């Protein structure tokens, strides 16, 4: 939906070529990004305490103050229990807005 709205999107699962060092590619993607979106799902909440790749990406985005959380199939209260810093950011929730509305709001944000 974001690409259809004209937003340039870098997503490691789609843009990481075979044989490319994953961490370096993610590092370059983060360095070249103006805004980082974090889709907060129950799976992400379970993975953050293990301090894997998602935790490292989150740390960079929090440090650079360019993070928009999007809560999906969970709540901000659940997020608060795992990552108070991420939960402190204003974001979006798919329980309140459809994915189409979320995508439109993000497209508007990056256009400014």
Notes on the structure:
It comes from Duganella violaceipulchra. Residues 2-74 form the TIR domain. The structure is a single chain. This protein has 112 residues and is mainly alpha-helical. It has one domain: Rossmann fold (3-Layer(aba) Sandwich). Helices cover 49% and strands 11% of the residues. The chain contains seven helices and three strands, in the order ααβααβααβα. The protein has helices spanning 12-15, 22-31, 42-47, 53-63, 76-82, 84-87, 99-111, and strands spanning 36-40, 67-71, 92-93. The longest helix has 13 residues, at 99-111. The protein starts with 11 loop residues before the first helix and ends with a helix. The model has no long low-confidence stretch (mean pLDDT 89).
Q: Could you give the count of β-strands?
A: 3
Tally of alpha and pi helices: 7
Work out the strand percent. 5-15%
CATH architecture type = 3-Layer(aba) Sandwich
Number of structural units classed as domains: 1
Largest sheet: 3 strands, parallel
CATH class: Alpha Beta
Order of helices and strands: HHEHHEHHEH
CATH homology group: Toll/interleukin-1 receptor homology (TIR) domain
In spatial order, strands of the major sheet run 1-2-3
CATH fold group: Rossmann fold
Estimate percent helicity: 40-55%
Terminal CA distance reads: 18 Å
Q: Given the helix and strand composition, which structural class is it?
A: mainly alpha
Question: What is the 3D shape?
Answer: globular
